[in-house]
Amino acid sequence: MDSLKQTVSDACRILAAHGVVEGILGHVSVRTSESELLVRTRGPRERGLSHTTAEDIRMVGLDGQGAELGEWRVPNELPIHTEVLRARPDVGAVVHAHPPALLVCGLAELPLRPVYGAYDIPGMRLAAGGVPVYPRAVLIRRRDLAQEMLASMGDRPVCLLRGHGLTVTGATVEEAVLRTLALEKLARVTIQLHQVGADVAAVSDEDQVELPDLGSAFNTDTQWRALLAELPEE
Ligand SMILES: [Zn+2]
Fold first, then answer.
1. Which terminal residue of the chain has fewer beta carbons within 10 Å of its beta carbon, N or C?
2. Per the residue annotation, which of 68, 77, 175, 233 is the catalytic one?
3. For the chain, how are helix, strand and coil distributed in percent, rounded to 5?
4. Could you give the C-alpha distances from 149 to 43, 124, 146, in angstroms and in order?
5. pLDDT tens readout for residues 6-21
6. What's the 53 CA to ligand 1 centre distance in angstroms?
7. Which residues 6+ apart lie within 8 Å of 204 measured at CB?
8. What's this model's pTM, rounded to 2 decimal places?
């Protein structure tokens, strides 16, 4: 459990280092049993996500209660995590963030399309499969709002929350974080293309089929090690 807490803590710092979360907003969780999860909480000496430590990662039940909480508080938007974990047994981890480029794409209604291929194959595949949008800009602090978001999300691993942020799932914390970074990268490129007035066609079906799946050892494990290595020393 300690190493899983460290992974969730590392995930928060990686998201902060990449500008995907700012200040104290955003959280990461991972399922640990049928009824429990580890989640990024806020303690009495909160210093923002870039300074997350394993101490900030606490075990709670799907009801948001937990003996381990002490002075630490669960996020207001904990229902994003608990409702996704309740509804989607395939999901092992959830990232909720307010990535700035994705915010602009949502507000400006710039669709996230698979405009590049080999530049970032997992990112291209995410876009090709479709990025659903939850149209409400509300703080998702109740179960019914999280269930509305889930209805928008369908069976996709991601959901853009218009005027708010993003919810991303993965089988693992690493997968959910890498998907978050890939989507924000695509959002930055989408905005830049719009700014230069380029109307770029999606990668052709022929080229999409030709792009290989490089496997999770490369796409996840190696990428994660590189992200960890880039982190500033605490
Ligand atoms: Zn939020």
1. C
2. 77
3. 45, 15, 40
4. 28, 23, 5
5. 999 999 999 999 999 9
6. 21
7. none
8. 0.96
